[in-house]
Design goal:
The protein has 1 helix and 2 strands. It is of the alpha+beta class and 45 residues long.
């Protein structure tokens, strides 16, 4: 059962923090390692 949970973690979408390179969940607003915001707003003109 524990192995199933480990396998499920790899299926979750993740992004790399642009500040420290830590692997974070896409749903996170801030990096759990450095605290920097993970999602950026794109300004369109």
């Amino acid at each position: 059962m524990e192995e199933e949970k480990k396998g499920e973690f790899h299926k979750i979408k993740k992004i790399i923090c642009p500040n420290c390179g830590n692997l974070c969940l896409t749903k996170a607003n801030k990096c759990i390692k450095c605290g920097e915001p993970l999602h950026f707003e794109i300004n369109s003109k």
